[in-house]
UniProtKB/TrEMBL annotation, chain A:
The chain crosses the membrane at residues 20-38, 45-62, 96-117, 144-161, 192-212, 218-236, 266-285. Pfam families: BPD_transp_2. GO terms for cellular component: plasma membrane. Keywords: Amino-acid transport, Cell inner membrane, Cell membrane, Membrane, Transmembrane, Transmembrane helix, Transport. InterPro entries: ABC_transp_permease, BCAA_transport_permease. Its main location: membrane. GO terms for molecular function: L-isoleucine transmembrane transporter activity; L-leucine transmembrane transporter activity; L-phenylalanine transmembrane transporter activity; L-valine transmembrane transporter activity. It is a multi-pass membrane protein. Belongs to the binding-protein-dependent transport system permease family. LivHM subfamily. This is High-affinity branched-chain amino acid transport system permease protein LivH. It is found in: Cell membrane. GO terms for biological process: D-alanine transmembrane transport; L-alanine transport; L-isoleucine import across plasma membrane.
UniProtKB/TrEMBL annotation, chain B:
Residues 313-326 have a biased composition (Basic and acidic residues). Keywords: Cell membrane, Membrane, Transmembrane, Transmembrane helix. Residues 305-326 are annotated as: Disordered. GO terms for cellular component: plasma membrane. This is Leucine/isoleucine/valine transporter permease subunit. Its main location: membrane.
């Protein structure tokens, strides 16, 4: 197979898909690292974000790119609201109870999407977009924007975590919650802040999945496994790890069709997850193991 | 005539309650007694259903099989197959906190769904496996239903008895000890990984049996027979509402939730079509909300796990025996 064909049909789609996974995986790694539980409603929160953007597009007739920030804010408030309404009351109990609660939230969010928007497949814009040719690399504009947006969003988040007071407090909570509390970090504010950021990231990953493929009520749920695989592969609690993990999982899924039947593309994430748990549970960048 | 129809419906419901009871009992072994989070119940259910169906059906051009083995062999095969699927997953994930198991079991259920859908030569693809023999299937409709109900009740009772026995044995006390305080159990020299793996496989096998009973009751199994997330989630809410860690609670939860679920379906079916579809999803929403409410206000469920108090002499004797052993 010629090299350019590999790049155009397997590597580039893999990087695009990987960027979408990376956005979700960063959120998962934040919840896993700071709040210390596996958030199973993550995918369905992304679905809600994608459909919220669709709602803005259909009601106001604006471009999807204008709808994205609106969806991000909506999703952030949604995540904070879910925490305040449900997870917060379970904080004194074993963490696995919150995992169970989040499984219920996943179903509830999906039901909301199905009731409000129905079960049909939707798109942001109609018509087929042909990829442009850049020195032999064929890529669509929206795919370029996806990759750029991912690096931009994660870059801003990384700078926030490294440089600001709040970011440092979040990292402190992730490293050692008891010490962080002793040093005067406000647990409740950090939790709220985390959920806000997670909501923004969810909306972004759902939106970019929607703009590159289609919007379906199950779109987020099917992303859940790859996103978790990416977060654990990169190392739980490591933002840059989640990006690397997301890209690896995305590229692995897209290139897997060269070796295994296409139906089993979705199995790649699972294989990666089991493999990394088997050989290096801390992930590539030495994250946490809960 | 009306009465017969009602009786038929009641028997039909009772059989389903029996099948779901097996799934809930299986989950109770994993979650209730051992604290293992299985989010892929539908996967183990499907493995059991397909294994038993393929082992017992006559030869067919659309799927693997033609073994025509006795139904009992099919059911045992279903349990073994579900256990075999559980083994590697447990082996990899049980070293970590249950969060990892939850994610991995979601993955397992997804892979099983993919295999069922795409390996047509084995599972018949979308058409599924038909002509699954049903014990007492030759009798007239009502008697056949009643006979199958009796069979299901018998199996549930046997499984219930087996679990109760196992849980009140030293193994069961050790499991609860591991669940409640892993460090203490480790310090006492218990092999936590191995014990958890046993519980995980035991529970999965019971779920596989539930799947087998379902396939033989329906006389067929297709990929659409069960919505993986809804089914898994229903079992969870049954167990949590009924009382995890208490087998009677699990059975009660199954009956309560299944009756609510079916009754609500009955109500939504009366609505005009345009609302009926939306109402279907509202039901899912309400079940999700019910879980949140139970988790927040009554996490121990309707029938909580017995804690070995004065009015529960059974557990007290165990404590005495333990004291004597020391």
């Amino acid at each position: 197979m010629p090299f350019m064909e590999f790049v155009n049909f397997y590597l580039m789609p893999g990087i695009v898909l990987g960027s979408i996974y990376a956005l979700g995986a960063v959120g998962i790694t934040l919840v896993f690292g700071i709040l210390r539980f596996a958030h199973l409603a993550h995918g369905d929160l992304a679905t809600l974000g994608a459909f919220a953007a669709l709602g803005v597009v259909t009601i106001f007739g604006v471009s999807p790119w204008v709808a994205l920030p609106v969806a991000m804010v909506a999703c952030a408030f949604m995540a904070i609201g879910i925490d305040k309404l449900f997870y917060d009351y379970l904080s004194e109990r074993p963490k696995i109870i919150v995992v169970m609660s989040s499984l219920g939230i996943a179903l509830m969010l999906r039901a909301v999407v199905q009731v409000v928007w129905g079960v049909d497949t939707e798109t942001y814009t109609r018509g087929i977009v042909r990829p442009d040719d850049y020195w032999g690399i064929r890529i669509r504009d929206r795919e370029i924007y996806t990759i750029i947006a991912m690096f931009l969003i994660v870059g801003v988040l990384w700078a926030f975590l490294q440089k600001t007071k709040w970011g440092k407090a979040m990292r402190a909570m992730s490293d050692n919650p008891d010490l962080a509390l002793l040093s005067g970090v406000d647990n409740r504010k950090i939790t709220m802040l985390t959920w806000g950021i997670v909501g923004v990231l969810c909306a972004a990953s759902g939106f970019f999945l929607g703009i590159n493929t289609e919007l379906k009520p199950l779109m987020g749920w099917t992303m859940l496994l790859p996103m978790f695989a990416a977060a654990i592969l990169g190392g739980v609690g490591r933002v840059e790890g989640a990006v690397i993990g997301g890209l690896i999982v995305g590229i692995a899924e897209e290139t897997s069709v060269l070796f295994i039947p296409g139906e089993y593309k979705a199995a790649m994430a699972f294989a990666i997850l089991l493999l990394i748990l088997l050989v290096r549970p801390t992930g590539l960048l030495k994250g946490k193991v809960l | 005539m009306e009465l017969i129809g009602l009786l038929n419906y009641a028997v039909f419901m009772a059989i389903f309650i029996g099948i779901y009871s097996l799934l809930a009992l299986g989950l109770n072994i994993q979650w209730g007694f051992s604290g293992l989070f299985n989010a892929g119940i539908a996967g183990f259910f499907a493995v059991g259903a397909y294994t038993s169906a393929l082992l017992t059906t006559p030869e067919s051009s659309v799927h693997l099989g033609g073994y025509q083995l006795p139904v009992v062999v099919g059911w045992i095969g279903a349990m073994i197959a579900a256990g075999l699927i559980a083994w590697p997953i447990g082996k990899v994930c049980l070293r970590f906190r249950s969060d990892y198991l939850a994610i991995a079991t979601i993955g397992v259920a997804e892979i099983i769904r993919l295999v069922v859908k795409s390996e047509g030569w084995m599972t018949g693809g979308a058409r599924g496996v038909n002509k699954v023999p049903r014990p007492f299937g030759d009798l007239s409709y009502l008697y056949s239903q009643l006979a199958y109900l009796a069979l299901v009740i018998g199996i549930v009772l046997i499984v219930y008895w087996a679990i109760e026995r196992q849980i009140s044995a030293p193994w069961g006390r050790m499991m609860r000890g591991i669940r409640d305080n892993e460090d203490a159990a480790t310090a006492m020299g218990k092999d936590i990984k191995a014990r958890r793996l046993e519980a995980f496989i035991f529970g999965a096998a019971v779920m596989g049996l539930g799947g087998a009973l379902f396939a033989h009751f329906n006389r067929s199994i297709t990929p659409e027979a069960i919505d993986p997330m809804i089914a898994t989630f229903l079992i969870w809410i049954m167990l949590i509402l009924g009382g995890s860690g208490n087998n009677r609670g699990a059975l009660l939860g199954v009956a309560v939730v299944w009756i609510i679920w079916s009754a609500s379906e009955f109500v939504t079916d009366q609505l005009p079509t345009e609302y009926a579809i939306k109402a279907k999803y509202m039901r899912v929403f309400i079940i999700g909300l019910l879980l949140q409410i139970v988790l927040r206000f009554r996490p121990e469920g309707i029938l909580p796990e017995p804690q070995g108090t004065a009015d529960n002499p059974e557990l007290k004797t165990f404590q005495k025996q333990e004291g004597a052993a020391k």
